[in-house]
Structure formats: structure tokens, C-alpha cells
Amino acid sequence: MRSKLSLMTLAGSILMASCTTYMEEPVQLQEINDSELLVKPTTSTDPNAKKAVERSYFEKFTNQLTQLDENGQWTAINPIYFPGQGVGNSNHMGKALTFLNQRTDGFGTVGAPVTQFYAKQLEALGIFVDNPEVSSVTTDGKGNSVWFKNIQNIATPASEERIEFKAEVEIIGGTGKFEGATGSATVDGYFNPLNGQGMSTIKGKIVY
């Protein structure tokens, strides 16, 4: 019964802001060329202050989503939350972890605060997210993290086991070397609504 209900709710609404790849696929990280770097002045008056630089951003992840109500219990009744965790790679961090959260009222999905379900896990890694617009966090587990805000989701069912999607996200902060980071990116991929697993890439620009 749960698998059928999960198919109905996931197929109709779920979409990840920071998503997934299968572990068996080799991860090929994009290298940053000097021609891709655009030096942008910071607002600091300190002559020794670090200058912000625009760089290409790329990441891949494998994760697992769950289907919960606001109290963390499994549900098929709206509103439904789709928190997820994953492991993968980022071209600015190497091996990394991801934490994400989405919400639906039955008409598509929107980003939900990642701290709703993962505040303790993030704080254990030294990451204290104080912005409710952050729906996804990518971190190397060493104090560096990038924070994402979900802007728009478009999902297209391809079969009972595959939903393809595209999402637009903004980078609205971070910790460690990414503190104050900004940028934008596009998420492309697909997922299986029967088990919450899927594949995606995030490509864009980051300034830090």
C-alpha cells in the first residue's frame, strides 16, 4: 500500500533542489580554467581583504529521499515533506555530503527549510543555518558548505519508475571558504518515485 501511495505522491509532486547520481557512475569533476575566473571587487576597504572571484560550479550526488509529515512521520496526506541526504562530489570540495528538503501541497514542489529535519546533523558538522530560505546544503564535513535556495521546479513523468526534472537554484551563502557566497545554477536529472533514488547534476557559477 505504501509503495502505491508513494508513487502517487512522488510522481505528482516531488522534485529535489540539490539532487542525485547513482554511485556506480564515475564522477568527472569539471576543472576550473583561468579564463573562467572573473575577479570582482569586494566591499571591504581593507587593502589586504580577499577579492571575490566568480568560478564555475559543478556537483554530483547520490541520495535517498523520504516522505514525511511536519512531525517526521510517514504520510501520504498533504502537506508532504521530502527530506533527503546524500553523498557525492563537488568540484570545489571533492567528496561531499548533501542535505535537502522539499514540500508539496499536491501542486508541484517548493523548497522547504533544510533545518526542519537536519538541524542537528548540520550543527554536528559545525554548520549553523540561520536562513529559512535555505532548502539544500552541500558540505565537505570540514566546515565548508554551500547553501542553496530553490527558485523553480519543472518535472516531467517519463514512466512509473522515472521522472525527469529541471530546477533553478540560487546560492545564498555558506560557511568556511564559502561564507557570503552568491551565485546561481541549474539542476538536471531524474529520480525513481517508487524508492526516492535518482540522478542529477548541478551546474552554474559561484562567487566567493
Summarize this entry quickly.
This protein has helices at 2-13, 115-124; strands at residues 38-40, 52-65, 80-81, 84-90, 94-100, 102-104, 109-111, 136-139, 145-159, 162-175, 182-191, 198-207.
Report what the structure shows.
Strand 11 and strand 12 form a beta hairpin. This protein has one domain. 11% of the residues lie in helices and 44% in strands. The strands form two sheets. Strands 2-4-5-8-9-10-11-12 form an eight-stranded antiparallel β-barrel. A three-stranded antiparallel β-sheet has the order 3-6-7, with no helix packed on it. It has 208 residues and is mainly beta.
What is the SS-derived class?
Answer: mainly beta
Overall mean pLDDT stands at 82
User: From the alpha-carbon coordinates, what is the Rg to the nearest angstrom?
Assistant: 17 Å
Tell me the series of helices and strands, N- to C-terminal.
HEEEEEEEHEEEEE
Helix content: 10-25%
Beta fraction of the residues?
35-45%
Number of domains: 1
What is the overall silhouette?
Answer: globular
List the quaternary state of the chains. single chain
Number of strands: 12
Largest sheet: 8 strands, antiparallel, barrel
Q: What's the N-to-C terminus distance?
A: 47 Å
Number of helices: 2
Low-confidence stretches: 14-44
Strand order in the sheet with the most strands: 2-4-5-8-9-10-11-12
